[in-house]
Amino acid sequence: MAFRSRMILVVLGIAATLLIAVILVIPALLNLDRYRPKVISYLQERTGKEVEIGRLALTLSPLTIRVDDFGMRNPAPFPPGDLVRVARIEAAIDPRALLHRQVVIKSLVLDKPIIHLISDPDSAWNFENPQTKVPEKAFAVGVIAKVKIKNAQLVASNLLPSYALGTIFFEAHDASGEFEQVNVDAIINPSSTSLGGQGSVKADRLSFGAVDASNLTFKLQLWARQVFLADVRAEVCGGQGAGTLFFDLSRKRPIFSAHAGFSGVSLDELLEPFQNGRGKITGKMEGELTLAGEVQHTQRPLAGIHGNGHVTVRNGEVPSLRLNENLMKLVRFNNQGPAKENPSSFNFISSDLELANLRIVSKVIDVDGYGVDIDGSGSINVDGSNELNYQAKAKITTKQGFFNNTFARLSGATLEEGQLSFPFRVGGTIESPVFSRGRAD
């Protein structure tokens, strides 16, 4: 009996010793941070960019590698700053694959990634480095079953020919999404044509040029140098919008194509960021628009872009009409409804749009005012001159008396089917439109 007790004590002592040894050894085995310099060196060799890692850690349940404060800096000749900065990366590892000396990432979580994409005047991007040679035994990530992104930010911009930072042409803020079966190697390999991944994304705000959208949802597809946003739904300037957006970064200059349908959009809010358009027209807009073209290295946001569409604006005003005495004379014969006190008001404006060579052309413009019907056409230059060249014919739909008709005809109007008609032109610029009586083509 004493012998059995002694044996039990010996076994317990050995077990306690082993437990103490394990407790002392495991932290050393789990101290992944000691390999941080080697990981940084490997990443810098493969990417050709300066890499920063705040801390590496390993947890057992589940087996996960954690990277804190990961950063990758812009290469020369791009401005100093981060290409990528991620607050935390968590990669869940398959322990069974480790037994066969393989690293298989089961899932990946990116928390607060911030990405700055920049293209230089020679159309190179800060995420590429053609002078870097990938090591022959480079580690292949392969396909990750699930990738989760939380609170991401993406900013894409161009450098001007002077290499100063140019216009930001795309931004996404507070975006979160989940993706399945993500082929990381297909995304980072510039010669790959395979789909890298797809999933669903939500974002608080997305900006395309000076146009903002909020509360977005869309399906995102990723290739090595192509991005496709499908089934986009968003709130735009008090209204709703839906459409698609595609970017191709594989060419000398990035190209894009976009299609959008929208309704209930406030022109006040939409034009607020544009100094030349601010306060020029009010109302609620609906319609559809298709745009495509190159993203060029210029401060002109519409340079290299072409497109077409149709818009209708309802229940608004053109305040600048009040400032023109000549036009006031033309419409003073209209005394119906709101136009009696505010001739710049309208019921709706309908117009086609065609954008090319920094010029927007409208072939059919229909303005239904309160007692005034205007049919016209023309164009506006968006090359910085903001020149207007429109011609139209305004009809006063309110019946006039004999003296008004006579006076109006002496003022240059004509009488057609009992309605007064005034041909006129609009020239000048957006800032200072010039209205004049003239013959409409």
Number of strands: 20
Distance, first to last CA: 120 Å
- The amount of helix comes to 10-25%
How confident overall, as mean pLDDT?
A: 80
Please state the overall shape, judged from the principal axes of the Cα atoms.
elongated
- What is the string of SSEs from the N terminus onward? HHEEEHEEEHEEEEEHEEHEEEEHEEE
Structural class label: alpha+beta
Question: Unreliable runs, pLDDT <50, ≥5 residues?
Answer: 2-29, 400-410
How many distinct folded domains? 2
How many helices in DSSP terms?
7
Oligomer: single chain
Largest sheet: 20 strands, mixed
Strand content bin: over 45%
Computed over alpha carbons, the radius of gyration is 32 Å
Kindly describe this structure.
The protein is built from seven helices and 20 strands. By secondary structure, the protein is of the alpha+beta class. It has two domains: 30-310, no CATH class; 323-437, no CATH class. It has a 20-stranded mixed beta sheet that branches. β15 and β16 form a beta hairpin. The longest helix has 28 residues, at 2-29. Residues 2-29 and 400-410 have low confidence and may be disordered.
Produce a short descriptive summary:
The chain has a 20-stranded mixed β-sheet that branches. With 441 residues, it is an alpha+beta fold.
